[in-house]
Amino acid sequence: xxxxxxxxxxxxxxxxxxxxxxxxxxxxxxxxxxxxxxxxxxxxxxxxxxxxxxxxxxxxxxxxxxxxxxxxxxxxxxxxxxxxxxxxxxxxxxxxxxxxxxxxxxxxxxxxxxxxxxxxxxxxxxxxxxxxxxxxxxxxxxxxxxxxxxxxxxxxxxxxxxxxxxxxxxxxxxxxxxxxxxxxxxxxxxxxxxxxxxxxxxxxxxxxxxxxxxxxxxxxxxxxxxxxxxxxxxxxxxxxxxxxxxxxxxxxxxxxxxxxxxxxxxxxxxxxxxxxxxxxxxxxxxxxxxxxxxxxxxxxxxxxxxxxxxxxxxxxxxxxxxxxxxxxxxxxxxxxxxxxxxxxxxxxxxxxxxxxxxxxxxxxxxxxxxxxxxxxxxxxxxxxxxxxxxxxxxxxxxxxxxxxxxxxxxxxxxxxxxxxxxxxxxxxxxxxxxxxxxxxxxxxxxxxxxxxxxxxxxxxxxxxxxxxxxxxxxxxxxxxxxxxxxxxxxxxxxxxxxxxxxxxxxxxxxxxxxxxxxxxxxx
Length: 523
Fold this sequence. Notes:
By secondary structure, the protein is α/β, with parallel strands linked by helices. It has helices at about 25-35, 70-90, 100-120, 140-145, 160-165, 170-180, 190-205, 235-245, 250-260, 275-290, 310-330, 350-355, 370-380, 410-425, 425-440, 445-465, 505-510; strands at about 5-10, 35-45, 55-60, 60-70, 125-130, 150-155, 185, 205-210, 210-215, 220-230, 260-270, 295-305, 340, 360-365, 390, 405. About 40% of the residues lie in helices and about 15% in strands. Strands 3-4-2-1-5-6-7-10-9-8 form a ten-stranded mixed beta sheet, sandwiched between helices. Strands 13-12-11-14-15-16 form a six-stranded parallel beta sheet, sandwiched between helices. Helix 11 links the parallel strand 12 (about 295-305) and strand 13 (about 340). Helix 2 crosses helix 3 and helix 9 (about 250-260) runs parallel beside helix 12.
């Protein structure tokens, strides 16, 4: 059986105390069956990192291989380029980019060093699965290091349109680097379509048919498959957690403090993509347009601080505190405030309990790859008296959770109207909407998501065993992989990269049985 090799920015070594969930749950489950290697950054800084060999730890049948970074590598590769350029760019917030050529060079150099460190650890039959925006050059870097194994790449965040990508000078080369993979997966059909257009315009690819791109190169070039694999949660497990939280001290304390007010709840990282300031503006609009809601609703906004060394995050925190304070000062009373703001991390089980008692869940990012919080809010509800999900149209989850109240987060009046609709919605309609939302997530899981992607890669592995279809190496940013290595993902009619018949993953068509709170952080 082929061994699964996962490549991501951070590695969840069990003994390190990293929280298991999301990606770790999906991939650990696969590795338990077939063995595996998880490779990435150790999270440690060392002056001599470039001269050190990977550290390998073997736990529960899985090898965890990590390398250290120098302080300069960490600052330039991770903080400055990954989080200071690619994160805002791919979320279509290019105005927040802080581009520097030296950061871009360091980003490529770190990926190349990681590829050179990983290559000797690979077995000929391994399946390589690369994850997320920290690793865009990795498929090409592995080919340059002589790796011929099938390579899959999955992007957990959105992929922007070609005109937005043009804001960063390196994106054409990075698109070509991604094409070193045999299968490239995305959260939504829009992201896959955006990448296909970028590959055509920036890398000279042509659309062969459906979700297949033809990459020009020696020997007639090669084919790369694109697929849509929406990340999932363990819905039943989260529902059980929320039910158990009803009996906790935190649950009782919050309920008592509300004094009968309706709870509006939002929970995410403090991040410019999450629509935090727009949400506060929407709450102000609600209370100004419909003053009857004053003293009858409270928004609990949990926005856990993150990336505190990035200037745009520092500015956002200051603006959120300012806007939130102004809202409370302008509309609040001595014994009531419309906004409760928490900027520290809150335990996942506690949040599950808060979700269960919330009348309205606000998940209104300006742009998001998937947003698992929306699915967790659905799973946390009491079927007999469920809360209402207000969801941004620009969250990837909106393509699955169509029974939510979908809103434009940039429109404060639309946000206010949606919250008012949710607060006044009849019980019967709330139950009908919740049942439809639950039906969209109850039979899915992170493990099934991982299996669906891996099934496509296994088809690539079988094809790669044929000598005439072996993958040749490529240079970074100049794909030169010869041969046709098709992946048995469902071919979708152009130009759409639509979801499978069961609502999203390719696993249904293959017959096979991962950011947000609760998921292992890749960043």
